[in-house]
Amino acid sequence: MSGAGSDAETSAAAKTATASAAPSRDAAAGATSVAAVAPSYASLDLFDLGRRATEARNGRLGGPWASFVRSRQLLSTGAWRGPRDAPESYVEAADLPALGGWDAARAAGVTLLVGGGENASNGEAVAPSEALEPHIAAAAAGGRSLWRLPYRAGEPLSQRRARVEALRALARRSDLALWGVLPAPAGEPQGLDTLHLVATLRLELPEVAHVALDVAALGPRLAQMALGFGADELWAPIVSERALRLGANAKNPAMTRKEAIVLIRGAGLVPRERTGPEAYSEESP
């Protein structure tokens, strides 16, 4: 991501992502933290699961493509971070109390609320009712929610299973507008575990239109691989230019449009830039 060589290397890695990520059937059967996440797909290895998830995504979108979006964030201070003309304006649920609630954020121009699932206590499947209130308010005002779904490699399988099922129940509620789900690793994400979860979310949450990828949390390479397992949007700051990822800038999550396009094309998909909640450019150059 820090230069032409890095882009080419990333693209090459993702073209074989499914093949390299998919273990043998014996290995997949032994990975209990993966195999039990979706019992309805227990007979499938990771390769088959990814293929089905990709087909489900392509069927929903009408073709093999994925997107990125320029966004701006309303911070807890009331200041904005990101380009003024960004088509997506969002706020983190954790920042709402300091801003005065959803109504204040909406009045400032926010249309997307990000968060929710991280408010559940350890071991609980769903967020407390007070955590749902801003999402209900957002839906009532014509806003949307991008639900952050926490997960941890090696966590009890029953907890993850319950969390996915609870999210599907939320997606069916008429007083919520879950536009998408954002898997959020707690700690270092593991590749196979993350890919399995992404595919599971695509297949088991047909009510949720989008599976977005937090590039800052997953890293560009794993996010690119996950595009081959049913995800459809890169969630990262899109900037016109950035410094090389060296020294203090090594973990800068921002990407240029060119870098986002390279990641999506490297996954074998057509890149599109989202210009509204469900509006997209025909094809990014």
Summarize this entry quickly.
With 285 residues, the protein is of the alpha/beta class.
Describe this structure in words.
It contains 13 helices and 12 strands. It has 285 residues and is of the alpha/beta class. It has one domain: Alpha-Beta Barrel (TIM Barrel), CATH 3.20.20. The strands form 2 sheets. A 10-stranded mixed beta sheet has the order 3-2-4-5-6-7-8-9-1-12. Strand 6 (144-151), helix 9 and strand 7 form a beta-alpha-beta unit. The longest helix is centred in the first third of the chain and has 16 residues, at 46-61. It is globular, with a radius of gyration of 18 Å. The two termini are 18 Å apart. Residues 1-39 have low confidence and may be disordered.
Distance between the termini: 18 Å
Number of structural units classed as domains: 1
> What is the N-to-C succession of helices and strands?
HHHHHEEEEHHEHEHEHEHHEEEHE
The share of residues in extended strands comes to: 15-25%
Instruction: Walk across the major sheet and give the strand order.
Output: 3-2-4-5-6-7-8-9-1-12
Query: Portion of residues in helices?
Result: 40-55%
- Given helix and strand content, the structural type is alpha/beta
Q: How many beta-strand segments?
A: 12
The overall pLDDT, averaged over residues, is 83
**Spatial shape:** globular
